[in-house]
Amino acid sequence: MNIPFLDNWLRRHADxxxxxxSVVAQDRDPERAEAxxxxxxxxxxxxxxxxxxxxxxxxxxxxxxxLDQLPPRWRDDPExxxxxxxxxGLYLGTVIVxxxxxxxxxxxxxxxPVVRLASGREIGVVExxxxxxxxxxxxxxxxxxxxxxA
Length: 150
What we know:
Elements: H1 4-12, E1 23-24, H2 30-40, H3 44-52, H4 61-69, H5 81-99, E2 104-108, E3 112-116, E4 122-123, H6 125-135, H7 140-149
């Protein structure tokens, strides 16, 4: 995922001349953290497709279980599949960040988002979303359950 304004921000805020820095959305600026969370939670394609199936995503753990139960019709469109998988991963991350205490978005250099738990463990939510979209596993609700236990 490439977010140009974050790339520019990272370059300007690198510590001690480091060319590569990362952004943690749980920093001293709660407004910035919320802005990053809002940006990553949009997931427009996923929200549109599940709305067609009669499901509304409410950023709750229960909605992940509901997503897991949908028939995978998106697999019929190879062009849309990676975009939907990316959105599914960002949605998974959104639910984790909003419901698991201490979880926060962490943006690696180059714009790759992961969720960092209070324990320091990082979850590659985008990769999990892509695997879910392509293979149906791991189920999003299972990834969430593991994050909530940590």
